[in-house]
Amino acid sequence: MDYLPINALSAVILVAGKVESEDEEWIGPKVPVVLYRQVPPPASTLDDDYTREEKLNFYDVCPPYPDPPFELPLPAGLTLHVSLGKLLSEGRTGMIFECECTIPHGNEKGYKIPPVVIKLARQFHTKDISREATAYESITCLQGSAVPRCYGFFQARLFDYFDFGPMSLLVIEKLGGLLELGKPLPNGAESDLNDVGSDLAKLHILHSDLRWENILSVLPPSEGGLPSLPSPFTGKIYGWRLVDFDLAKRTTHHITFAQGHYIGHMERVLSCIPMGIPVQPWE
To answer: What are the chain's domains?
Structure first.
């Protein structure tokens, strides 16, 4: 049985659960809610100030991206029924929910649904989630290796609850845990993460929010985790992924600039973890 391809879904129905933040300052609509797949904004929305100011065309300056290490079938037009569960985490732009999912109709190929999470945009942060959707689409060739698989960007217009913009969410591959603060880095973690950063740099993508909270392990097979894919650049299978790309930028700076972005930030973050310090980008 094949796993659900990242382009298989055309809609998501939230059929159960509560849409609310931990502090309950804002409570969303009662379910069910139907959200439809959207085409993310163009990749040019990620262009950094340098690229815009110099009026550079990314594709004239930077080499083409490699093909992803997987083939995508034609979109299957499936509807994912989602029961929201525990609120796993909250950030500046979104809330991450555990969920249980089914595809009750039309799954003629019998696709198996992998463990996923729902990232729901916080109030006034629809634009950030749409930007993250653009980033994931731009780095499709690294999905399943350096970054999680993203199964789509979905929206619904609900004026009673979302007068500031549409209700927006991402369906993202569920990952494992964080690096343990105050403990030595696991074997291979530093090497993997340096290569992950190098892979993104070769795409001229700057994460721009590299921190302890945005580094997660792959989900182990015992918990239903999908097999990791080899990096299209190194051929390696990584045990760690970078997440949270709502601040990502695309640059036409030379690749050494992009490599330096990751080398400097990654070294700073990883060196502080054994000391129990979750260093922040602005510190």
So the answer is: 9-272 (1.10.510)
